[in-house]
Amino acid sequence: MSKKPQVKNKEMDNIVSLAKRRGFIFPSSEIYGGLSSAWDYGPLGVQLKNNLEQFWWREMTQLHDNIVGIDAAIMMHPRVWEASGHVENFSDLMVEDTVTNERFRFDLLPEECQQEMKSPKGNPLSEPRQFNLMFATHMGPVADAGSKVYLRPETAQGIYVNFKNVAQTSRVKVPFGIAQVGKAFRNEIVTKNFIFRTCEFEQLEMQYFVHPKEDEKWFEFWKEQRINYYDKLGIRRDKLRFHQHGPDELAHYAKDAFDIEYEFPFGWKELEGIHNRTDFDLSRHSEFSGKDLTYLDDQTSERYLPYIIETSAGLTRGVLMALCDAYEEQELEGGDSRTVLHLHPRIAPITVAVFPLVKKDGLAELARDLERELREDFSTFYDQSGAIGRRYRRQDEVGTPFCITVDYDTKEDNSVTLRYRDSMEQVRVPITELVGTIKQAVKEYRRV
């Protein structure tokens, strides 16, 4: 085995360890032995996830005058999933090791295993069979065929069935978009790589409705918009790439599709998909519901079914990307070292940490008061335990971009030491100028 995969595996192990140790992500139900594919987000993890969601929402709605939001129900009418093709097509070929009873997605097995119909352990495999990925449940007091519903496997269908409602109530005109953040559920056969592939996850989706003759123009527009979004997050561009779906990869609804992939420690994997879905979705829902979902252009009197350009990203997958991209183990001068998360200040769980140099002589009280004042503008943290260098290291490890130290000079000149995480530079700043200085540093942030 080459050295490179070993290094990458070690890096991933270190990231997973840090995530649990510092309160980002815990195994779900851990005291009962955990539940495969389920994870809980701790105090820092939920803040990171919320910050990412808010960053995306601002980029996709607030900064556009023709994109609005929606929050559709998780459980929908069963006919929705018949119209979308999920009942018929949303399945994987599954095989089972006849000795160990382990289950595998047939298409993800090595080629030699597929040809010989043997598991990675060399045991015979069962015949491939279809395995539907949707979670089914029942609504109402009686569990029968008439009460069967599904936990949604994607959030997009909630947007499509509300197309008319949004168009009529928001007075938007084509081209326009509908954005949504929400949970989705897939009964995945294979769940691995920490939180990368799980049965319960959150999606960041925007469906952009366009004139059928302008689909290719808007498809290229959103490709560019979405790759540039990751620059704004401070993600390293050399870790990102486009992957175009070939004829054998295209979904049944897609005219064209590109994935934005990120190079995780375990390889290049999909972060987000940009798809030209044509008028497939609106035409299917119009057919199955019997409702007219065409759009009437009040300027030209033309009536048509819009084409849809979809951007679909995983929020929880984005959390993993942010952690992996930010993680670094640095060797410093004098034989010292530190672990640091270079998270963009806009998404870091803690923006500013405030420390008193010592706990005595009124410094702790001054630092406490300052931390409370800064809460109005930033996510803050107070720490008075341990040597100041150790406190810096603790904040470096969770990605806090700015640390403030209140010392004896503060009592004399009303200034503090502001430390920058990435460069470890320290400067004196008057307390009256702190908020403005930090806000400007966030606005101008570039990873060192």
Automatic annotation (TrEMBL):
Signal peptide: none annotated. PANTHER family: DNA POLYMERASE SUBUNIT GAMMA-2, MITOCHONDRIAL, GLYCYL-TRNA SYNTHETASE/DNA POLYMERASE SUBUNIT GAMMA-2. PROSITE patterns: AA_TRNA_LIGASE_II. It is an enzyme of class 6 (ligase). Pfam families: HGTP_anticodon (PF03129), tRNA-synt_2b (PF00587). GO terms for biological process: diadenosine tetraphosphate biosynthetic process; glycyl-tRNA aminoacylation. ATP binds at residues 186-188, 196-201, 270-271, 314-317. It catalyses: tRNA(Gly) + glycine + ATP = glycyl-tRNA(Gly) + AMP + diphosphate. Keywords: Aminoacyl-tRNA synthetase, ATP-binding, Cytoplasm, Ligase, Nucleotide-binding, Protein biosynthesis. Catalyzes the attachment of glycine to tRNA(Gly). Homodimer. This is Glycine--tRNA ligase. It is found in: Cytoplasm. It comes from Spirochaeta africana (strain ATCC 700263 / DSM 8902 / Z-7692). The lineage of its organism: Bacteria, Pseudomonadati, Spirochaetota, Spirochaetia, Spirochaetales. Its EC number is 6.1.1.14. The keyword DNA-binding does not apply. GO terms for molecular function: ATP binding; bis(5'-nucleosyl)-tetraphosphatase (asymmetrical) activity; glycine-tRNA ligase activity.
